[in-house]
Amino acid sequence: MSDRIRLSIDGRELTVEPPLSLLQAATADGTPLTSNVGCMGQGVCGACRCLVRREGEREVSTVLACETSAENGMQVSFIDYFTPHRPHVYDIAGITDSWRIADAVRDVFPEADHCRHCGGCDRACPKGLEVQRGVALAAAGNLAGAADIFDQCVMCNLCTLACPEHIWPNHLGLMVRRAVTALGLRPSDLIARLAEIERGQQPIDFSGRDDHDAAAGAARKG
Fold first, then answer.
1. What domain range is 105 assigned to?
2. Residues 150, 72: one domain?
3. Using CA atoms, how far apart are residues 46 and 39, in angstroms rounded to an integer?
4. What transmembrane ranges does the database entry give (predicted)?
5. What CATH number does the domain containing 152 carry?
6. What stretches in the chain show pLDDT beneath 70?
7. 211 lies in some domain
8. Do 50 and 78 contact (CB within 8 A), yes or no?
């Protein structure tokens, strides 16, 4: 009995025999799984998101119960799922011009430009993703880079819960991943450059003076 551990899950005091995941420990006393369960241990659905405080620590962290081992003295609270207050509606199939996909993402998620860089989304992510950086890349038009960051997103919604600007980063990441997969994007730096030219930023000088001056300078050095 000495190797058994005690922990609290949603206010229930449990004594279990390790090794067990938090999800397994939650059923150790016969309590049925009626919520916060999906892939049953694969770590791909985000349904078992929970808050955890370890013994002797003040900080509370977000984890997936199916991927986290039960430890003695843990305090665990599962987090209910919630839905967006403003659904982001879009149709990837309706975006036929892949040169304009970055503009389409901005139209659907204009909040992304208002990121406060507070880091709350990064701290909330149970998978340890660089969520804030993914949002910044998407806002800058680097959709391929953003898609790479959000590739392991399990849509748990915790980054959205933590965002004061209501960006819904995981939903932004999902749109970006869908767009990259469906449309085979052109190079993001080229798309951004063409957009700058259309807005009149950093205009191109077609006079050839720079090339002429550079050639003259090289001749003088020679």
1. 92-198
2. no
3. 8
4. none
5. 1.10.1060
6. 1-2, 84, 185-189, 202-222
7. no
8. yes
